[in-house]
Amino acid sequence: MKLRKIITAILTLSMTITLIPSLGGCSLAVKGAENDSQDILIGVFITDDTLDFSPNPLYAKINRHNSSDVSDWEADFKDVKGISFFAPIWTDKDGFSYHHTSYSDEICDSKTEFLVSDQGNESNLSAAIYTAPPASPKTVAYHVNRVYQTPDGKIYAVPGSGVSTDTEHGEGEMMSVSADDQIKYLEGRELKTDKTSVTVRFLAMYKPVKISLFQMNEEHQVIKQEDFTPGNLPSKLTTEKGTSYILVETVKQTPDGGRTYARNLYECGENSEDSPLETFYAMDTGIMAKQYTEIVYQNK
Description:
The chain has no helices and 22 strands. The chain is mainly beta. A hairpin with a 2-residue loop joins strand 14 and strand 15. The protein starts with a strand and ends with a strand. Strands 1, 3, 4, 7, 8, 9, 12 and 13 form an eight-stranded antiparallel sheet that branches.
């Protein structure tokens, strides 16, 4: 499974976090002491089936590819089929730390935020998964397993929440699963809190079966039409002269074999390259992935 990666340096920011007087079930650690062994939540690993974690958690394989560059490092659960969305912390040979966000093709609309302050660290991850409602009477379940990182860098998964979808879910309907955790610890005489929040939204989307691109002029006339199989659009599209905007029409198939249509407009202009075309295609798992097409604008 191909994983996409984002490397984010950990910066110190001026930020105020309200400390909760009660520990709320979280343990208290003293950095530098023998009990400094708290594992931190770094994301989720989503599977179709319930994983058997007994007697030990499911550990990820960490491959540094004989490189000192953290952008080359990878962690994944190679022996288990699933969807990865997690952000471990890597520390390079010079002592600099980085959040390394890895996510599978099925992960869309991902957002990550990492904050470091005098009160502690805060990590917020969110993403969406677009899944096709199955044909009746099949029900599809997804298990959102929590992923943790140990102080010595090991990464493992434990059971989490689950969701299911069936033909009763219309397009656009949403379910959301969240995983939250925090650890409190003493650093010197100061009580600090590290927080992590991960949210994955599950949205129903009918399977795209055809995508048409219409290059339109200012009079709303078609200059050029191209039809594509979803997932096979070009990585770069050069517009025809006189193109004012692009109309993207997606034909989708409903579970009962019907058809629906979705249309989106993309204006052509000097900043078009900053707004690529976004289209979807169905993977073998029934989950949608996004394809991006860069727009190269030609002056009139």
